[in-house]
Amino acid sequence: METKNIMIVGVGGQGSLLASKLLGHLLLSQGYDVKVSEVHGMSQRGGSVVTYVRYGDQVHSPIIDRGEADFIVSFEILEAARWLSYLKKDGQIVTNTQMIDPMPVITGAAEYPQDLEAKLKASGARVDALDCLKLAEEAGSSKAVNIVLLGRLSHYFDLPEDAWMASLEANVPPKFLAMNKKAFALGRDY
């Protein structure tokens, strides 16, 4: 199998590292060679955080170059736009529509870009945008945005649902498992 590339992009504190860990666990359980590389920005200060997940028969490097990502999974729509140049021509963006002001917007040095979903689509990218925060809150916690996104991403994979559930069970504390399973289902079935 040709190596597939997934970029998980977001803002510090949104759970992108747990999402990459879950995805890596899932893909390993399905027999793939998997490489995960965590690239931290100013995550403690709400800055950009990027994780690369690469999988296939044999993966030699964890790094994804521009124009190589099959998927960009974005926790915040501006992050999807920021990393768009990494997406393949036929790649898929799965993004939360939530807008989190970056520091230049907070300080008044810049304005938050408008109509990002339309701009992403106008670039030729395939875009699956949903309000993951609303779905996470419906599941029981605003912190489950990452699991809602993984649920939506699962829609694009031909992997058994029980494998996704096994990865949740292996990586989420038992007291949060039912809520996270609900968040996953809400994203998957959106």
Task: Outline the fold blueprint.
Blueprint: E1 4-11, H1 16-29, E2 33-40, E3 48-56, E4 69-74, H2 77-82, E5 87-96, H3 103-106, H4 116-122, E6 126-130, H5 132-139, H6 145-154, H7 161-171, H8 174-188
Parallel strand pairs: 1-4, 4-5, 5-6
Antiparallel strand pairs: 1-3, 2-3
Provide an overview of this structure.
The protein is an alpha/beta fold and 190 residues long. The protein has one domain (4-188): Pyruvate-ferredoxin oxidoreductase, PFOR, domain III (Pyruvate-ferredoxin Oxidoreductase, domain 3, 3-Layer(aba) Sandwich), CATH 3.40.920. It is 39% helix and 24% strand. It contains eight helices and six strands; from the N terminus they run E-H-E-E-E-H-E-H-H-E-H-H-H-H. It has helices at 16-29, 77-82, 103-106, 116-122, 132-139, 145-154, 161-171, 174-188; strands at 4-11, 33-40, 48-56, 69-74, 87-96, 126-130. The chain has a six-stranded mixed beta sheet with strand order 2-3-1-4-5-6, with helices on both faces. Strand 4, helix 2 (77-82) and strand 5 (87-96) form a beta-alpha-beta unit. The two termini are 29 Å apart.
Tally of alpha and pi helices: 8
At CATH's second level, what is the architecture? 3-Layer(aba) Sandwich
Strand order of the largest sheet: 2-3-1-4-5-6
Reading off the top of the CATH hierarchy, the class is best stated as Alpha Beta
- Let me know the average pLDDT: 93
CATH homology-level superfamily: Pyruvate-ferredoxin oxidoreductase, PFOR, domain III
* Major β-sheet annotation: 6 strands, mixed
- How far is the N terminus from the C terminus? 29 Å
SSE pattern, N- to C-terminal = EHEEEHEHHEHHHH
Tell how many strands the DSSP assignment holds: 6
Overall outline: globular
Report the C-alpha radius of gyration, rounded.
16 Å
Structural class based on helices, strands and sheet pairing: alpha/beta
CATH fold node name: Pyruvate-ferredoxin Oxidoreductase, domain 3
What is the helix fraction of residues, given as a range? 25-40%
Low-confidence runs of at least 5 consecutive residues: none
The count of domains is 1
Strand content bin: 15-25%
